[in-house]
Records
---
Amino acid sequence: MELTKLTALELGAAIKRGEVSVRQAVQAALDSISAQNKRLNAFLTVTGERALERAEQLQAGVKHAQSPLYGVPMALKDNICTKGVKTSCASKILGDFTPPYDADVVERLARAGAVSLGKLNMDEFAMGSTSETSFYGPVKNPWDLQRVPGGSSGGAAAAVAAGMGWYAIGSDTGGSIRQPASYCGVTGMKPTYGSVSRYGLIAYASSLDQIGPLCRDAADCAAILDALMGRDPKDSTSLDGPYGNLLHGLTGDVRGRTIGLPIQCFGDGLDSEVKAAVLAVADVLKARGAQVVELPFPVMEYVVPTYYIIAAAEASSNLSRFDGIKYGWRAEGCQGLGELYRKTRTQGFGSEVKRRILLGTFVLSSGYYDAYYKKALQAKAVIKEAFDRAFARCDLLLTPVAPATAPKLGESLSDPLQMYLSDVYTVSVNLAGLPGLSMPCGFDGKGLPIGAQLIGPHFGEGVLLNAAHAFQKDTDYHKRTPKGGEPA
Ligand code: GLN
């Protein structure tokens, strides 16, 4: 049995049956990490010894295991706090910051019998779309080492695609789970805002940030979300539910479901191979009894500016806590407090983060607040209404995840505005707080994975996962794995 090719649920079942020990699973993942991580730079910290100790503990309880993910090794994006394990946000400013507590999701996963292999590389403070803004160097796409894995959860997507662990936990503020999942050929989901606790997630833009899984398929996604979702009194934006059992609800039956194709998502600027692959998803679901309708969605031109104003505004406020006093790294040889703040922040943050802090401070400043920030909040309400109108007519929406497949390393760094524009299909989902899923739906002529996005109404996770599961029953894109990352 080639362990690293199994899904998380298949591995969990093999562990439960006693065919594979937890230790064997952990060892297989650690071997895969040692063989590949130098090349891919997906892991920033590997906690091998801890994982092997945890494997022994879990093995002792395997007979009584309830969770289908019991004993399955996974890894966490490095903006999720882990007690006693360095959490850097891929930034210099956090230095060797080691949190004294676990994020709520880490506790939930521990209760589900997860084994953590370590922490994953990302764009600095989750700001970026390519995982190139990491202080620790870029992550490489396992399908082609010359290309980016997407971002900001690029380490998470690359690790899952390359078989370095069975699933990963990322965060998504404007597409950071869905877009890297799409570039790396894995399944990823941002659940409804408020359904997964943000306690212990280092904040980028609090009204948009949401934690979610990157994994092999929709069934794994359902099982992981079952473990993650639920009310948490420690997060004031956490919701009461309804939380059902997503895994049990997975039938793959989409008969009678209406799938909307927002016309403005298939227009200019979309690569033709991506367009064809995404539209083919509609055909597969239609063959299974779903109805497909085209819908107007006349807000697409506003989504990127609205998102970047709100995200930058919140980032400028959230990141003011990193000052060299309370956490992490501090500049040396400063005269007085003012210089300490200035030097630490100037040298500790990378340029993309500083660009966002400047932009956010500007849009919140008196005189510009009404023109930019307030306007963006009004636009956000209009975008939400556009979704409400769409969901009055259909059960879910099908769109591309990104306008093209993974770009080459270095291409986006020189043109941040171009990079922001590539977020056009994902950011509106966060602005409206909706669940969104990305799944592999084909490959382009260069052999690079293409992703399709499904968007649902609030707490529509079950409908989304069912549609993705139906698609994955009839296709095998999600089962393909990269060879060695040399260009095809
Ligand atoms: N690319 C978007 C940004 O840079 C989204 C990032 C994210 O979802 N964390 O803000």
---
Amino acid sequence: MKVLVINCGSSSLKYQVIDSDTEKVLAKGLCERIGIDGRLVYQPAGSDKIKTDVAMPTHKEAVKLVLDALVNPENGVLKSLSEIGAVGHRIVHGGEKFTRSAVITDEMLKKVEECNELAPLHNPANIIGINACRELMPGVPMVGVFDTAFHQTMPAKAYMYAVPYEDYEKYGVRRYGFHGTSHSFVSKRAAEVSGVDLHNSKIIVAHLGNGASISAVLNGESVDTSMGLSPLEGLVMGTRSGDIDPTAVQYIAKKENLDFDGVMNLLNKKSGVLGISGVSSDFRDLLAAEEEGNKRAKLAVDMFCYRVAKYIGAYTAAMNGVDLIAFTAGVGENNGFVREQICEYLGFLGVKIDAEANKVAGEEKKISADDSKVLVYVIPTNEELAIARETVALVK
Ligand code: ADP
């Protein structure tokens, strides 16, 4: 079956068409600047990107342009849209309502809408994308795959914040966690390639991208994760602060005369390794600056690695041990320097890295030494493929 995978943001829409039998990507791309002016990027497998500036007043026009590109006689990858057997949509927040992926119906979308307050920037955009697809592709089965669902197995002691219990009961204030599709995909794949029995395993997944989170996966189920009610909590990220004393937030707000939105913007967009270094949120730029002797760039990278290592220590305690640590996402997959720096803190666990193997970039590989007490792997994530698999499983 050919599956269209859609990841819709407020002004952008990423897409892939995946043949679920071969698991090959047939075409991919994105629509940018929706509602502003509009640009379509379309890339059939094995060919260069084709970029077209074209008006996209709403997401509906964006989806229409994607569908047109897919069946374009010149470089389309489908003869007709009827070849698309299902659509898988990424949805950011499923609250406590969704513990797994779900077939999209009117009733299901109502439940998604009820989670909007928890992710006001993301969920409404996801729903707009879904509605645009439903209008243009009536009758095609669609599935919603949630960033939060995998983490719904966390026990209360891990997901509760120590605030008045009524705030949880009345407003759903708790840790939800994100990147669930990636943590699920990578933990399963890590078990598969290493020969560890997923159902009898202690795995820590470090998803280190621009957004970064880490999870403790016990016997195949998430038992803790670093992101919280929103993706702001936990690790130091590209532009997000991660963990911080709320009093520091109040103090900055007062000093800088910022309201709630202003201070949240500072924490989400101007903090993290960008805020510390003043150089960039991109690790390639940071490492180049560090090499040139930039002290703040070095501090940013040091803080990032230290925080990851601390969480690995914490999650080892949470699971009473760790069998395997898996690095994934942009930095985790590509950056041996960062992986090495993190693992240097983990000697007490018997973690030993094979320096030669750790040169790997973007490929599945064991990077621990043969006498390491903990297996360490690089496992490239593939959220689109995970969404396509979930979609097929639910519509078949
Ligand atoms: P997101 O999906 O959250 O936007 P990614 O997973 O794409 O983020 O990760 C982006 C980060 O990965 C950037 O900091 C970038 O520098 C880093 N990255 C990507 N490729 C490489 C590479 N080859 N070497 C070092 N860092 C890389």
